[in-house]
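Budget justification aside, the reviewers requested a transparent look at the raw inputs and outputs of the sequence design task funded under Objective 1. We therefore reproduce one unedited record. The lines immediately below are the structure tokens for a 615-residue chain.
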């Protein structure tokens, strides 16, 4: 079916709407101004400061997300676009709200491991340059992960939407040699129309207040934009842009609506930039088979050398390098690359625009999601651990693992459909998910990273144990908070439990009072344990401190407190006092509910046919 594939022809008339868009873009200039040298000095200091926090882990789950949907092909292209979010809750009973253009468009309560699709209105696509409020904001009561999907005809792209904690106020923009890159791609596409379309940045304000954003350029004037609360700006870029500095956290998408591929086709690409302080030195470039044009691009702010066991040629890069690194074997083998300074590496091809997962960001479990039956999961694991990679509850047994030169790692590709959890019980791994458009062009990127800590039987959301809640709250608030975080106020109602908590608090060097799950009945004034939503009266074990508990006027609730012999006895405290608290949670694992649903469906069908038989 060639007829419904995107064709290049409409691009030739792109000039009309584009010049109209330039009009809008000009309006933006009223808020621009020149940035003084002083701000450049500040920038350097900031850069040094953020480098120190490098090495933190980076997971894709959170409570609060903000993103946007870039233009896919062209807004006036005859095929209807489909823009949606796939939202997956990690825990049960998670309420989720989605806002578009500052209006609530979706709310629901999700169950763990079941993906909900939220379709966005057609006008979510950002085809105008300039500012708007048309961001998409997702808020949830507990941890979720979000995949955004944009499809118009054959042009499909996915992006793992990053939670607010992964955003930052400072980003370096990859200074790709856009002209050269486009002409490499154009040669495949018979040199059509590169003038009419350009790479763009979408900068999204994560905060509900005005946010000043400075786009710094090499040799050209900087641009200053005041972003509206939760608003966004879309700008065309030409390779002169080097950094984004904002007052508050922003999300940054680098995108192109229509990268030419072949036979008069094009497709959208999108890459959410990682802030500089998440950069690192060690990477494994995933092998992406059958990509005829693949570029490896380095972004760095310093002089940098690249090695792969040996020094790579060309290897000395000035700051903000624009040239691609040519690695022909990327098309068949995975490659290890070490950079002398922290950097960001990107794989760029007509359909793919991905930032590589540095080794330190490897996780113990990932979620992969595919539209088609031909999804491709690329797994990178230490060679000694390759026999223990799992897909859901099954072992990934493959003879296709191939060792990566100069490393202790191997990689393998597996074809899958639907949604799966890829995990390892004892080490961290790297996982990418790719799919193909109907034209055969690859798209995708890093899989949805869930947890860094390996666990023997699956994807561990949290382990069994104590958690000290650092925010002082009343007893009732603390009780509710523990339940909300899938636990309960700890109730040491046996000598053994009391000893456990005392040891734990001693190890943590706790020097203050903490709420426990003990309080008086309002009616009888009897003490009882509140374990989650269960009340336990008449418990015989007691560990009151000297002179405790006081009478009911002194307090109707109980805290544990440090003493000289560190056995952490209890005392009565007024319930409305604000104290830290100690929650206890049992281990919880993440699994997908789709398998169970399928089984259930089969059972129902079976029952149905039985019933029919009886009738
Ligand atoms: C969610 O609820 C289901 C069904 O009650 C249960 O099997 C599962 O363990 C729960 N998952 C989590 C993460 O709480
Ligand atoms: C977004 O909201 C603004 C008003 O705040 C309105 O002018 C604009 O048309 C809306 N855009 C969309 C796509 O609904
Ligand atoms: C949000 O939820 C409430 C109650 O569950 C419902 O009445 C309302 O229509 C929902 N709003 C949207 C935008 O879905
Ligand atoms: C594309 O243009 C370049 C010069 O701009 C030319 O060298 C090349 O042959 C052209 N390719 C095709 C397929 O026309
Ligand atoms: C790139 O864009 C900037 C800002 O729009 C402009 O000042 C500059 O002249 C452009 N550079 C080139 C090489 O086109
Ligand atoms: C990929 O390349 C291999 C051999 O080079 C070929 O057999 C296969 O058909 C190609 N796959 C696609 C989807 O193009
Ligand atoms: C999004 O979720 C829906 C429903 O689970 C699924 O059918 C679809 O394939 C998912 N899309 C992607 C791109 O994973
Ligand atoms: C107490 O909580 C459990 C698990 O969360 C639930 O199954 C049960 O219905 C709750 N009981 C009451 C009385 O709310
Ligand atoms: C606790 O024990 C007392 C007497 O020892 C009894 O009167 C009371 O009913 C018991 N309470 C509960 C909740 O079992």
């Amino acid at each position: 079916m060639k007829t419904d594939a995107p064709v290049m022809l409409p691009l030739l008339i792109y000039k009309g709407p584009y010049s109209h868009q330039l009009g809008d873009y000009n309006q933006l200039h009223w808020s621009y101004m020149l940035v003084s040298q002083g701000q450049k000095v500040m920038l350097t200091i900031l850069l040094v400061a953020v480098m120190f926090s490098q090495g933190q882990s980076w997971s894709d789950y959170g409570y609060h997300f903000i993103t946007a949907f870039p233009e896919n092909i062209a807004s006036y292209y005859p095929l209807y676009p489909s823009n949606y979010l796939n939202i997956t809750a990690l825990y049960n009973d998670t309420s989720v709200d989605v806002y578009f253009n500052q209006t609530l468009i979706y709310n629901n309560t999700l169950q763990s491991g079941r993906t909900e699709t939220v379709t966005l209105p057609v006008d979510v696509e950002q085809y105008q340059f300039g500012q708007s409020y048309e961001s998409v904001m997702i808020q949830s009561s507990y941890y979720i992960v979000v995949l955004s999907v944009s499809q118009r005809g054959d042009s499909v792209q996915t992006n793992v939407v990053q939670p607010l904690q992964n955003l930052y106020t400072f980003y370096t923009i990859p200074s790709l040699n856009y002209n050269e890159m486009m002409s490499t791609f154009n040669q495949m596409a018979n040199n059509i129309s590169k003038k009419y379309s350009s790479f763009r940045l979408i900068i999204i304000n994560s905060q509900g207040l005005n946010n000043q954003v400075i786009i710094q350029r090499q040799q050209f004037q900087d641009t200053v934009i005041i972003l509206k609360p939760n608003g966004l700006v879309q700008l065309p870029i030409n390779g002169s842009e080097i950094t984004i500095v904002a007052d508050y956290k922003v999300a940054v998408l680098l995108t192109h609506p229509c990268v030419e591929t072949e036979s008069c086709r094009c497709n959208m690409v999108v890459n959410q930039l990682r802030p500089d302080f998440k950069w690192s030195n060690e990477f494994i470039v995933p092998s992406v088979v059958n990509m005829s044009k693949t570029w490896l691009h380095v972004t760095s702010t310093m002089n940098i050398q690249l090695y792969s066991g040996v020094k790579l040629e060309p290897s000395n890069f000035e700051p903000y390098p624009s040239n691609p690194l040519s690695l022909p074997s990327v098309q068949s083998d995975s490659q290890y690359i070490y950079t002398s300074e922290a950097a960001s590496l990107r794989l760029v091809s007509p359909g793919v625009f991905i930032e590589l997962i540095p080794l330190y960001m490897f996780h113990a479990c990932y979620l992969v999601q595919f539209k088609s039956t031909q999804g491709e999961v690329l797994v990178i694991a230490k060679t000694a651990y390759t026999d223990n990679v799992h897909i859901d509850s099954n072992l990934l047994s493959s003879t296709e693992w191939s060792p990566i030169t100069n490393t202790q790692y191997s990689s393998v590709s597996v074809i899958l459909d639907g949604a799966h959890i890829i995990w390892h019980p004892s080490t961290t791994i790297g996982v990418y998910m790719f799919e193909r458009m109907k034209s055969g062009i690859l798209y995708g990127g890093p899989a949805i990273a869930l947890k860094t800590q390996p666990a023997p039987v699956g994807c561990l959301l949290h382990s069994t144990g104590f958690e000290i809640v650092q925010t002082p709250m009343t007893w009732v608030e603390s009780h509710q908070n523990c339940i909300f975080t899938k636990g309960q106020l700890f109730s040491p109602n046996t000598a053994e439990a009391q000893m456990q908590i005392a040891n734990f608090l001693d190890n943590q060097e706790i020097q203050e009072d903490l709420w426990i799950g003990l309080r008086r009945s309002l009616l009888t004034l009897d003490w009882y344990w509140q374990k989650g939503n269960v009340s336990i009266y008449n418990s015989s074990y007691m560990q009151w401190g000297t002179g405790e508990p006081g009478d009911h006027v002194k307090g109707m609730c109980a805290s544990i407190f440090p003493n000289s012999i560190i056995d952490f006895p209890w005392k009565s405290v007024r319930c409305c006092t604000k104290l830290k608290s100690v929650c206890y949670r049992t281990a919880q694992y993440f699994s997908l509910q789709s398998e169970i649903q399928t089984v259930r469906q089969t059972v129902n069908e079976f029952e149905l046919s039985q019933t029919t038989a009886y009738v």
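The helical segments are 15-28, 37-51, 178-188, 475-484, 495-507, 594-614. The CA atoms of residues 378 and 413 lie 4 Å apart. Computational costs for records of this kind are itemized in the attached budget.
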